[in-house]
Amino acid sequence: QVQLVESGGGLVQAGGSLRLSCAASGRTLSSYKVGWFRQAPGKEREFVGDISWSTSYADSVKGRFTISRDNAKNTVYLQMNSLKPDDTAVYYCAVPILGSYNYWGQGTQVTVSS
To answer: Is the confidence at residue 27, as pLDDT, over 90?
Structure first.
């Protein structure tokens, strides 16, 4: 079992920045891939990026978002810069254990105003 808690969401103007955190308990996050996803109202959940031995990002956020780890804090971060109104969504972190992403946090709301 692993418990994930996201934090750091909020309201920001377009062009601004936020850093989301995904704190884990129950397992050591450094041993696993961690993914970030988002879901906007009326839309399907979409992949934002992930971190394992390297990072990968969706084209829509590449160059603006950065995922990093702090192993001492058992936390993964999503640094979001140059935010756009289209980035408005609930953001989730997730961990795949023995296959697909099967452990999810509760999500944190990010709202970008124009």
So the answer is: no
